Amino acid sequence: MSDVIIVGGGIGGLSLALTLEKAGIGSTIYEATPAIQQVGVGINVLPYAMRVLANLGLEKELAQRAITTQASAYFDRCGSSLHRMPVGRFAGETSPQLSIRRGELQAVLLDAVRQRLGPHRVRTGWECTGVLSERDDEVCLSFRDRRTGQKLEPQSAKIVVACDGIHSKIRQQFYPDEGPPRYSGIFMWRGVTCGPKFLDGATMVRIGLPSVGKMVIYPIHSYEDGTQLINWVAEIEVPDPGSFCNKRDWNCPGDAKDFVDVFADWRFDWLDVPELIRNAHTILQFPMMDRDPLPRWSFGRVTLLGDAAHPLVPLGSNGAGQALLDAEALASELAACRNPVDALARYEDIRRPATAKIVMSDRAGAPDIILRDGEERVRSQVALPTGRAFPRPARAA
Length: 397
Ligand SMILES: Cc1cc2nc3c(=O)[nH]c(=O)nc-3n(C[C@H](O)[C@H](O)[C@H](O)COP(=O)(O)OP(=O)(O)OC[C@H]3O[C@@H](n4cnc5c(N)ncnc54)[C@H](O)[C@@H]3O)c2cc1C
Description:
By secondary structure, the protein is of the alpha/beta class. The chain has 2 domains: 2-34 and 125-180 and 292-363, FAD/NAD(P)-binding domain; 41-101 and 182-290 and 367-397, D-Amino Acid Oxidase, Chain A, domain 2 (2-Layer Sandwich). It is built from 9 helices and 17 strands. The protein has helices at residues 11-22, 47-55, 59-65, 102-117, 169-174, 273-278, 319-336, 340-363, 369-381, and strands at residues 2-7, 27-31, 42-45, 67-69, 71-75, 81-86, 97-101, 122-124, 126-135, 138-145, 151-162, 182-195, 203-209, 213-222, 228-237, 282-290, 302-304. Strands 1, 2, 8, 9, 10, 11 and 17 form a 7-stranded mixed β-sheet that branches. It has a 7-stranded mixed β-sheet with strand order 6-5-13-14-15-12-16. Strands 3-7-4 form a 3-stranded antiparallel β-sheet. It binds flavin-adenine dinucleotide (FAD). Flavin-adenine dinucleotide is lined by residues 7-13, 30-33, 43-44, 127-128, 163-165, 169, 188, 190, 248, 286, 306-308, 314, 317-321, 323.
């Protein structure tokens, strides 16, 4: 019997396996997909999250594969600068801010888990279907093979941590009436484009607002020929996305023609946004979603972590970082407490209020505050284009 079963091998589950291993606690990951996939496009790892990864000895390896972001800059939709601030070590923090291909981050975490815990500690193709029973010192989970639908042998552990993302099965078991995640009214298209550097080649920029079109753009990799892989996110208010791609899925393909017109006149002297979109070699689409904070995460020997516990709208680049903080706190409490049930309660006491605040402030659009001021300034000077139709998201493949 494992000490800890981790359900889900995403950024949260993999990080938890590593923080537990560092604390001398064994774990096994059960992941539903047949192979841990490299999902999504780019991701920003903020300094507070890099601190956790550095403590796991992974900073050097990640930095080699990433762009060390030097500054965060805000622009209005006419391309005029609103604000620029240094970030990470450039702002005097002890850790850097990295922008990286999501797949690279996952690969570094997965390799570290396989090396430190052993390859047999990551079991793929095991979809958890729920908590079967909990006795004195043991929790038992049911599983099936996602490809064949066949039942697999139940598995037991002293502790179970649900790291199974925004559509968590275990959360659903504890909260059967909760329903689907909450759509924010903003639809996102995310892409990567290989192209020339913009600005200094190490700045993350935010432009516009979702009501008129917003872009978040940052480089995630430099090539030897001087070009870069540039990650971008288009955020647009789409009040009713209809029945298209209404589930947040990491790999739902998108189509530039559904939204590029919103940015048609965004040709700045420092970046041509329509060209960036048209030259993309990958475009994915996501409805922007979160869930209300929960009154409780831990039920006996089972708890929630990462997006299973507190999915956030991705406005502040916080989701993966918060999962890393969860993983650090949970491992530390399990190492410190004799009784694992008390450890889960203490973990929840630390992390639940902290993440609830972030869910609500990101939902209220706190990270966009500078952009709102910029939009007000533009509105006082420029008439809004008339007749701009809301784009229609493409039907999911
Ligand atoms: C568009 C977008 C952009 C983002 N950008 C950033 C960013 O720049 N910075 C940042 O910090 N965060 C960002 N986030 C948030 C971040 O990606 C998530 O918070 C983070 O991936 C959560 O990790 P997780 O492991 O909890 O969940 P997930 O990454 O969703 O992983 C869940 C895992 O569980 C598996 N699973 C699901 N169900 C089962 C089951 N029943 N049994 C077994 N396995 C199961 C899944 O296959 C998956 O591997 C972004 C999110 C989105 C949607």
